[in-house]
From TrEMBL:
UniProt-recorded name of the protein: Sugar transporter
An example molecular function term from Gene Ontology annotations: carbohydrate:proton symporter activity
Family membership: Belongs to the major facilitator superfamily. Sugar transporter (TC 2.A.1.1) family.
Domain of life: Eukaryota
Annotated membrane topology: Multi-pass membrane protein
Transmembrane segments annotated in the record for this chain: 7-25, 95-118, 193-213, 228-250, 257-278, 290-314, 326-345
SUPFAM superfamilies documented for this protein: MFS general substrate transporter (SSF103473)
Annotated keywords: Membrane, Sugar transport, Transmembrane, Transmembrane helix, Transport
Gene3D superfamilies in UniProt: MFS general substrate transporter like domains
UniProt xrefs under InterPro entries: MFS_dom, MFS_sugar_transport-like, MFS_Sugar_Transporters, MFS_trans_sf, Sugar/inositol_transpt
Subcellular location: Membrane
Length: 346
């Protein structure tokens, strides 16, 4: 109902409200309430952004564009790690934890500032019968298509209009039979949900979140002298690997790539578990370095395959009359899995 831009607006407002609540919090209850509000905003972006990327990207660039969602997550992690590293060197004051929280205001503010210049998804507009706005959006997305045409005629190329009309007819036909109950009762729609949600659930059940959430404590317990620096190094490697995946991963057989990296991750996390338990007995620096080496190997394997491909597969399988609903269920399953693994596995 709100459109992609509308959801970004709502997500930005919730994100700002959540951050402000955490900044002014003097109690754990208010801090948690702010985190909950912030989570609503982040959830809105998690659902809407990959959907929009899949809708506006040309077919040949769709998969790499969807993988860029994981790249943005990786870049944000290295920025956060750098800020935390700097704050760890500061005196232990409220500023040390409030500044990283307040820094989160930058991104929703940038989104709000850029919204007027971002075209709405033509696919979403067509599905709502707003073909004139969809045509304008297409012109903004693909300005080169009409470069050779008479500048006195503002209409887009007739082929684009024809494609737009085709999509409008297709969407009208598909949406006429959609509904939440079909995600369970319809065999084809149910299979889409299972594959789409399953890709994001499988992305998380491998236990990768233990490092993202508890990396500093873990690095300290295995005897590393500077856990924050280690985190910064690992995240720098991660950005390079995800960037390589954006360029290369879609050229490789997905099933074999996922199976191979799953094997590497299984061996890595097994070695880390065997050498790092119980953690308080890990005093040998050599053992600590071996552990962190296998942690890096696990991070590399994850971010070359499951990290970017999980979002790509989930978006590609969310198609047809229940596209938005299928992807919403998939992202909800993703966050529930993150919560369960983080709360139980460590």
């Amino acid at each position: 109902m709100l459109g992609r831009k509308g959801m970004w607006l709502v997500g930005s407002v919730f994100t700002i409200a959540g951050v402000v609540l955490q900044l002014v919090a003097e109690s754990t209850a208010l801090l948690m309430a702010g985190r909950l509000v912030l989570g609503v905003g982040v959830g809105g972006f998690s659902v809407t952004s990959p959907l929009d990327m899949g809708e506006v990207a040309p077919a040949q660039l769709r998969a790499p564009m969807l993988m860029c969602w994981q790249l943005t997550l990786s870049v944000s992690q290295i920025v956060a790690a750098g800020i935390n590293r700097a704050m760890a060197l500061e005196p232990a004051t409220s500023f040390s934890f409030r500044f990283p929280i307040g820094f989160q205001l930058l991104f929703p503010i940038l989104v709000l500032a850029g919204l007027p210049f971002v075209p709405e998804s033509p696919r979403w507009l067509v599905a709502r019968g707003k073909t004139d706005r969809a045509a304008r959006s297409l012109r903004r997305l693909f300005p080169g298509r009409g470069r050779d045409r008479d500048r006195e005629h503002p209409d887009p190329d007739p082929s684009i209009i024809a494609a737009l009309q085709h999509h409008m007819d297709t969407e009208s036909r598909l949406h006429s039979g959609g509904g939440w109950t079909q995600l369970v009762t319809d065999r084809v729609e149910r299979r889409k949900v299972v594959v789409s949600a399953g890709a994001l659930v499988a992305q998380q059940v491998n236990g990768i979140q233990w490092f993202y959430y508890f990396r500093t404590v873990f690095a300290r317990d295995i005897g590393l002298q500077d856990p924050f620096l280690m985190t910064l190094i690992v995240f720098s490697i991660q950005v390079v690997v995800v960037a390589a995946a954006v360029v290369l991963a879609d050229r490789l057989p997905r099933r074999r790539l996922l199976l191979a990296t799953t094997g590497i991750m299984t061996v890595s996390i097994f070695v880390v578990g065997c050498l790092g338990i119980p953690s308080h007995e890990v005093q040998n620096q050599v053992i600590g370095r071996v552990i962190i080496s296998f942690v890096i190997l696990e991070i590399v394997a994850f971010n070359f395959a499951w990290g970017p491909l999980g979002w790509t597969i989930a978006s590609e399988m969310a198609v047809g009359r229940n596209r938005n609903k299928i992807y919403a269920v998939a992202v909800a399953a993703f966050w529930v899995t993150v919560w369960v693994t983080v709360s139980t596995l460590p």
